[in-house]
Write a structure and sequence with these properties.
Elements lengths: L6 H7 L18 E10 L3 E2 L2 E2 L6 E10 L4 E9 L2 H8 L10 E12 L4 E11 L14 E10 L2 E8 L13 E12 L2 E11 L8 E12 L5 E10 L18 E9 L1
Antiparallel strand pairs: 1-4, 1-14, 2-3, 4-5, 5-6, 6-7, 7-8, 8-9, 9-10, 10-11, 11-12, 12-13, 13-14
Length: 261
């Protein structure tokens, strides 16, 4: 699930610093740009829920942008544990499989009158080699999304066109995401986020999540960005739990390191 823990870190890492004492006009961007990102977190949280049972994750991806049109496409991967845990917990007699999440996405972004921006597209969450079907589920999920921004603030809506990550009869589930990322200087960004996940026909699984975080880009370290965030949810007891019964949406601290090139 496209992560969201490294989003502020990756965005901050592509901010270029001005040469001290000199004023430069912004260089014209090429028509086509390709970038790559790699990072790690101590706990991969997606919409506030741990995907790795509070263990670390290594993550990376690639993005293509056509600047004249605003069209873009990309891909992103991370290790996960939740599919294996779900199959193992069901006691099907077969070991759970599905250690990787592979996101594939594309869309269009641009400017609107009055200083607003937009971003619309689709995102497919694919779990290669998973055997979630052992418990009658299909983990693969497709969402359409639309985002409206103004200055540092944004509001994003995501709509599931399939069942949501294997939850039965959950097509048309929705995620509401509001937040802001403030540049406070010295390469530091303050990020605020509040989200709400609704799960169609399964209100027990619906919840609200939040995040307060900071990232710092170190130009002297080849633009590496470090992040620190406090995340949490109000997920109901038993809705999202590890095999040992731990609440996967409990409050926690997430450390991240990222590099875009």
């Amino acid at each position: 699930m496209k992560k969201l823990i490294l989003a502020a870190a990756i965005a901050a890492s592509v901010t270029a610093s001005l040469t001290a004492g000199l004023a430069h006009a912004e260089d014209a961007k090429p028509d086509n740009e390709v970038s790559y990102n790699i990072g790690a977190v101590n706990d991969y949280r997606f919409r506030g829920i741990s995907q790795t049972r509070f263990d670390p994750a290594v993550q990376g991806g690639a993005d293509y942008t056509n600047n004249p049109t605003g069209l873009y496409a990309g891909t992103w991967l991370s290790n996960i544990k939740w599919i294996k845990d779900a199959v193992d917990s069901a006691n099907t007699g077969t070991g759970g499989k599905g250690p990787v999440e592979w996101d594939i996405y594309g869309g269009k972004r641009g400017d609107l009158p009055g200083g607003f921006t937009y971003d619309v597209g689709g995102l497919y969450y694919y779990y290669p080699t998973n055997n979630y079907s052992q418990i009658g589920r299909n983990a693969n999920t497709f969402e359409l999304y639309g985002q409206l921004g103004y200055g540092p603030a944004y509001f994003k809506y995501s709509h599931a066109m399939t069942n949501l990550f294997g939850t039965i009869d959950s097509k048309n589930s929705a995620y509401y995401d509001a937040g802001a990322n403030f540049d406070v200087g010295a390469g530091i960004t303050l990020g605020l986020h509040l989200g709400h996940q609704t799960v169609e026909h399964t209100s027990f699984a619906s919840y609200t999540d939040w995040k307060v975080g900071v990232t710092k880009t170190f130009d002297q370290l080849a633009g590496i960005t470090l992040g620190l965030a406090y995340v949490g949810t109000d997920a109901k007891d038993g809705a999202y739990v590890s095999p040992s019964g731990k609440n996967l949406g409990r409050n926690g601290v997430v450390f991240s390191v990222a590099k875009t090139f």
